[in-house]
Amino acid sequence: MTKISITATVFAIFAAGAVSAATEADANGDGLLTIDEVQAVMPEITADAFNAMDLNADGALDQAEIQAAQDAGLMPA
Predict the structure, then answer these.
(1) Mean pLDDT taken over the chain
(2) CA-angle at 48, arms to 46 and 51, nearest 5°
(3) How far apart are CA 24 and CA 37, in angstroms?
(4) What pLDDT digit, counting tens, does each position of 36-63 carry?
(5) DSSP string, the chain
(6) How many CB atoms lie within 10 A of CB 15?
(7) Which of 2, 55, 56, 62 has its CA 20 to 30 A from that of 71?
């Protein structure tokens, strides 16, 4: 296996873990996390913190915003 293949495999496994964590919090199954869904599993996340994670200010976190928040240490994986 080449280094690129190994790296791609590790990345895919990591990404799948992030998706499953988000899926567990996604109460209505729409693929987005609202502040209510986030606070239901992470009550320490404030409205200000959520708004900082909501990069496009649409009131919900998509997978890219969740990943960015986790990478920045704003949200646990």
Answers:
(1) 80
(2) 110
(3) 10
(4) 999 999 999 999 999 999 999 999 999 9
(5) --HHHHHHHHHHHHHHHHHHHHHHH-TT-SS-B-HHHHHHH-TT--HHHHHHH-TT-SSSB-HHHHHHHHHTTSS--
(6) 12
(7) 2
Q: Cα–Cα distance between 29 and 42 in angstroms, integer?
A: 18
Residues ≥6 apart with Cβ < 8 Å to 14: none
Contact by Cβ (8 Å): 76, 70 = yes
**Cβ contact 69:61 at 8 Å:** yes
CATH architecture designation of domain 3-71? Orthogonal Bundle (1.10)
The residues, any chain, with a CB within 8 Å of residue 53's CB and separated by 6 or more, are 61, 65, 66, 68, 69, 74, 75
Instruction: Report d(CA 61, CA 25) in Å as an integer.
Output: 11
